[in-house]
Amino acid sequence: MFDRLQAHFPVRYTAFALCIFGFLLMLFTVVGFGVGWLGLLVFAALIALGLHDLRQVRHSILRNYPVIGHLRFLLEFIRPEIRQYFLESDNEAAPFSRAQRSLVYQRAKSEPGNRPFGTQLDVNTEGYEWINHSVAPSRLDSHDFRITIGPERAQPYEASVFNISAMSFGALSANAILALNAGARRGGFAHDTGEGSISVHHRANGGDLIWEIGSGYFGCRHEDGSFDAQRFAEQAREPQVKMIELKLSQGAKPGHGGVLPGPKVTPEIAAARGVPVGVDCISPSSHRAFSTPVEMLQFIARLRELSGDKPTGFKFCVGHPWEWFAIVKAMQATGITPDFIVVDGAEGGTGAAPLEFTDHVGAPLQEGLLLVHNTLKGAGLRGKIRLGCAGKVVSAFDIARMMALGADWCNSARGFMFSLGCIQAQSCHTGRCPTGVTTQDPQRQQALIVPDKAERVFHFQQNTLKALQELVQAAGLRHPQEITAHHIVRRVNENEVRLLASLVPQVAEGALLGVSLGDSLHNVFRLYWPQARPDRFTL
């Protein structure tokens, strides 16, 4: 009998049946005793929901499990929060671990960062790294480490070794931009505008700016989207703009353009970018101003001249090695060298990007930085060009490690977002950021109090540099630039550790200048360097 009942009324409808039973029970109490109106309305709403579930055609689960099937979607919706707050360990990275986020929060608030009872890391696991210390530590007077970018330029820039990476107004809220720039001004470090150009919020507090010029030429474009030299010169010569950065690609989605939908193009964003209000704002996947490596360098030289001879360079995420080699050969052929190059790692990314691009396109920072650093060394150009990098850099050890691999300075995007109060909700692309960092909703932005967050931006950068100072002193050095791959050690298995210098490829100074390449060079150089040409990106 039970089997026959179950066949006619499957268990999956039990929740819906209980709603009907509850409704009838509440109806009885209302008719008989005049109480239970609220319960009656609740069960009536649940019955209506169940009927809708049975008739809708989008979700199979709801058709088979009316009413209770919504529990599955609810649990799926709150799963990231449940995992983040209750299940995730301190050192699980997704994409930043709780330990990494906590480090930023502590330094942004200038809270004590000391930890009792030893490391929480497994020092015996493969990949664990450390920096070797000296029995004769150095003593430094300041943590304000700086490098000169463009020493031959009319307006060279004394840059900090730790700066704010490219994040556009539009991707970030107005209050976030205001707080970042105010913190940058107080600390004397640089704030990269991102390709969304210079907005009124970038200008409000007067912090140093690196103006990023993307393929959409926002802020310096004609109506048809082509480059406008006059508009560029007007803004590039402003004293607040310290350097010009041509963006070839970004780590989050290299080789991919972007579209800011028309409804999101507010009057403020339109004014900054030089585009119509309410019209789709398109960022092409490639530049219109040049099509060959030589033309690219000539464009960089033109930007430098228009800016009043300020340091000018480019940013990219390494892709086809022969394209990068072609750019270097164009430098040799033309004599034009950028003042700096910023290598963006594929693990970076503050905005939305297609999943395949986020996970599987572009070289990670270590591989990209090493290729660029080694190629410039081999071509005899490393001494003329400064190297910056970005990609999950949040701690002093992250900076030290990147400088050991060849960087002159590091940028951080998400690290500074954490200093603003970002909780890694990963809703940046929805406009519903819970902390007001990545939304254009005026009400949500009010949660981000600019003076308070500006202080946190300043303290995060300063306290990170103080930690870097302590690492440099412990290693017996005078400046982070003295850190090399010989100072970093990595465990390669349970019983063996090796210096990073013996694990990563090394190219000798001038090794690519000879007629023939030595057998000691990595295959990527021996295969693609001879084929690369300065007049084209293709082989």
TrEMBL record:
Keywords: Membrane, Transmembrane, Transmembrane helix. Residues 159-477 form the Glutamate synthase domain. The keyword Transferase does not apply. InterPro entries: Aldolase_TIM, GltB, Glu_synthdom, YerD. One of its GO terms (molecular function) is glutamate synthase activity. Pfam families: Glu_synthase. The chain crosses the membrane at residues 12-31. GO terms for biological process: glutamate biosynthetic process. Belongs to the glutamate synthase family. This is FMN-binding glutamate synthase family protein. The lineage of its organism: Bacteria, Pseudomonadati, Pseudomonadota, Betaproteobacteria, Burkholderiales.
